[in-house]
Amino acid sequence: MKFLIVGSKTDPASRNIIMNLMDLVKGFEYHIIDGDMLKSENLNHEKIAKYDLVIFASKHKSEKSEKTLSIHSPGNFKDVWGGGREGRLSPASALFNKHLFEVLKKQVYESDLSRYSVTLEVTHHGPLIERPSVFIEVGGSEMEWKDRAASFVIAKTIREAVETFKENHYLEVGIGIGGPHYCPIFNGLQNTSNVAFAHIIPKYVAPITERMILEAFNQTVEEVDFAVIDWKGVGKADERNEIIRILEKNYIPWKRASAVKK
């Protein structure tokens, strides 16, 4: 596979990650821009089209300035968060996302960086591109974005994930439905189960529609085995029943999150 690492000169976390990565390994290919990576118009789509998978190294701003190292797929189910198009998701690889998440957990443990929590985030914000992509981010305030230890761990994670990735066809592929932004249910399953997730639809975009579910299904590059429902994380019973109706109408198998084997 051919990987492209995207970074921004105006993003302090991205700058540090890219500089560390360039020091760690030679031969990786980069697309370094001056502006906001979330905006599709700032990217060279002709260049991006030449690669199999795109990794965005970025900062993450949380309202509570939580210290996180996070991974998520890009796309906008409803409102546009800083780029992309409403109702459109970029393609995403569930198998690579799971591998990247596992490597990040290992690197954080080995680096004794326990002041940061490792987490998935639901699918959110742009850019909208045609190649499979994933964001890996340093979250918090400007202090965390400039934290050299955190950026170094992200750089080591990217290096190891790219160099060791092999498609594991024994994994099951799921789309996640429900829960809050940091999706604790899907975090747990990504970490302890045989299911790999790329796109996750959060509760806060409710009502969760057929278009949202089909976009998450169709923009997962691997064949999706089933949807996983955060049972209490999709609202009231009538909202859950409507999601199940949509899934069954479209012949998409589903499971309660609690029924997924760990």
Short account of what is shown:
The chain is built from 8 helices and 12 strands.
Provide keyphrases for this structure:
single chain, 262 residues, alpha/beta, Aminopeptidase, Rossmann fold, 6-stranded mixed beta sheet, 4-stranded parallel beta sheet, 8 helices, 12 strands, globular
How does this model look, in words?
The protein has about 260 residues and is α/β, with parallel strands linked by helices. It folds into two domains: about 5-165, AF0625-like (Aminopeptidase), CATH 3.40.630.50; about 170-260, AF0625-like (Rossmann fold, 3-Layer(aba) Sandwich). It has eight helices and twelve strands. It has helices spanning about 10-25, 45-50, 95-110, 140-145, 150-165, 185-190, 210-220, 235-250; strands at about 5-10, 30-35, 55-60, 70, 75, 90, 115-120, 135-140, 170-175, 195-200, 225-230, 255. The strands form three sheets. It has a six-stranded mixed sheet. Helix 1 packs across helix 5 and helix 3 crosses helix 5. The longest helix is centred in the middle third of the chain and has 17 residues, at about 95-110. The radius of gyration is 17 Å and the shape is globular. The mean pLDDT is about 95.
